[in-house]
Amino acid sequence: MFTARRSAGWALALSLVGVVLVAALPAPAAPELPPRPATAAYVNDFAGLLDAGTRNELSEIGRALDEKTGAEVVVVTVPSLGGSTIEDYALQLFRAWGLGDREKNNGVLLLVDKERLLSGESGKVRIEVGYGLEGAIPDGRAGRILDERVLPLWQEKKYAAGIRAGYLAVAAAVAEEYQVDLSADRTLSVLDGYRAAERGSDGLPWELLPLLFFLFIFLMSGWGRRRRRGIWWWGGFGGGGWGGFGGGFGGGGFGG
Asked: pLDDT by residue for the chain (256 residues), tens digit each?
């Protein structure tokens, strides 16, 4: 009994020592972030990936969208992440710059790491979304924007074009969320094609609705009930569902 108690005491002591040692370890260094612009800057090309024309166009779109919705869509390119993951860097930058309205939390950050972009590594781009816009840009939609708009152009070494396409697709999603009349604004009219292409892509494909309707009729029919014990009975629509993606990583977002 004495030996068992002494062993338990040693185990407790060693556990406490381990906790103390872990607590004494230095915390991971916070990423070195670029300073927050003194005035609203929707395009921050610290890595020099954008030409002047693209910078001006995206800046005008970001400003016009902000004026109509209060949402801030910001693109930031950096030379490197300094050893941080793009998820952590994007979240820290998003918070440090305070993107979006304080109450609505409706900012969006498109972050691009030039070092990983040119080397072809993963973790080179991320869309960080404020909680207030997670319904407009859930993970699924953010992923499709990167996969369908950005990455194909980058594979052709069209880096500025890829960033532009990603920014416009994000801005289009925000404009749709706030029901902005794009036809009434010359600057924002370019978003119309992007909004139409993205609309309805996060739920059940509309082409399947007729099939589900007839399946429902079949299940509710007397014949379906008679065959309940047969191989044709699929059960009802309860439990689970066809909902789209939701939530997000950290403040909400998706990277590639």
From this structure: 445 555 555 555 555 545 445 444 444 466 789 999 888 899 999 999 999 999 999 999 999 999 999 999 999 999 999 999 999 999 999 999 999 999 999 999 999 999 999 999 999 999 999 999 999 999 999 999 999 999 999 999 999 999 999 999 999 999 999 999 999 999 999 999 887 454 444 444 444 556 666 666 766 665 444 433 332 222 332 333 222 222 233 356 666 7
Residue 43 contacts residue 34 (beta carbons within 8 Å) = no
**Contact by Cβ (8 Å): 119, 154:** no
Domain boundaries, the chain: 43-199+248-255
- Give the list of residues 6+ apart from residue 54 with CB closer than 8 angstroms, or none: 160, 163, 164
Q: CA 75 to CA 155: how far, in whole Å? A: 20
- Beta strand spans in 90-218 (E): 107-113, 125-129
Residues constituting the chain? 256
CATH architecture of 43-199+248-255: Roll (3.10)
Report which DSSP code applies to 22.
H
Contacts made by residues 118-124, CB under 8 angstroms, sequence distance 24+: 122/256, 123/81, 123/85, 123/86, 123/87, 123/255, 123/256, 124/86, 124/256
Helix, strand and coil in the chain, % to nearest 5: 50, 10, 40
Give the max Cα distance, the chain. 85
